Amino acid sequence: MTRKVIGTTLAAIVILTGMIGSAAGQTVIDKKVDSLFVIASSGEAKFQKFVQPAVDSLGAMGLEVVPYMIKKLDTKSPRERIALIAVLKKVGSPAVPQLIASLKLINGLSVERACMALAEIADSSSVPALNVAATHPRWRVREEALGALGKIHDPRSSDVVINALQDSIGLVRKAAAVADGQMKLGQSTAMLVHMLGDDFYGARMCAAASLLKLDTSAAVKTVMDSLNSSNQLVGNLGCYVLGQLGTPEALDALLYQTEASNPDRRAHAAEALVAADSTDQTCYQSICFPLETDPLVRLKVESAMAAHDHGR
Description:
Layout lengths: L2 H18 L7 H13 L7 H13 L5 H6 L6 H14 L4 H7 L5 H14 L5 H7 L5 H14 L5 H7 L5 H14 L5 H7 L5 H11 L4 H10 L6 H14 L2 H10 L5 H14 L7 H5 L6 H15 L3
C-alpha cells in the first residue's frame, strides 16, 4: 500500500469517526475509540475497506483502548468479538495485566473472552492466572484457558493440562489433548493412549494427533501395550497411531493385529498397515490379504490400497 493510499484511507477513517462518534458525555478519546470500533466491527459493505485500518488504528493507541475493549468482552455480536480480540492482539503484552484482572470478573462470558485474547497475545506472564482459569466452573472458560496455555506452552502449566485430560466435558478434554501435544508432555503418554477410547470423537482424535508429537519409541510401546484393552476404541485408534508412527515395531504389531478374531480390528490394522508400508515389506498385501475372508474387511483394505495407489 502506497503512502498516498494510506493517507487517503486514514483520512476517510477520520471523517467516518467524526460522523459516527457523537455520544454526549464521552471524552475525546472515548469518542475516537467508540467510533473506530464501530468501523472495525462493521458488517456494512461501505465500511469493509476500512475495517482492518480501523483495527490497526485502535491497536496503535495501545493501553488507551484496553478499558473499552474489556467492557466489550461480554458482547453477543460475533463481529464485535472478532474485532475486540484482534485489537487486543495488536495491543499485545501491555494489555495483559488488565486482561488478567478480567479473569476475576463474575461474568463468565467476559472471562472466556479474556482467555481468548490472552491466547492470541501468548505472553507467559499470564500463565499463573490462566492455570487458575483452567479450573473455572464454566466449562467454556476452562476450554479457552487450556487453549491459551497450549499456545504459550509454559512448563508451569503441565500438571493443569494433564489433569484436564480427565475433565467431565468432552470439549474441555479435547482442548487439553491439543494443549498436551503443543507442550509435548511426555509424562502424559499413557493418559493420551487411554483417551483413544474417549466417548467424545473430538477428544480421542486430538489425543491421537498429540501422541504423534511425543517421543516415538515411548508412544509405540504404550500403544502396543494397550491394543488388547477392553475398550475396542483404544485398540482400533491405536492401530491408526501405530501406522502413522511407522516404526518396524509398529508395523510388526499391526501385522499381528491383522490376524485378530474381531474383523473390525483386522480392518483397522490392515488399513493402517497399507498406509504405512508402501513397499509391502511385511508382505501383508501380497500374502496375508488374499487369505482374508470377511467381505467388509476386504472392502476397506481394497479401498485403502486404491487410495494409496492414487497418492491420497
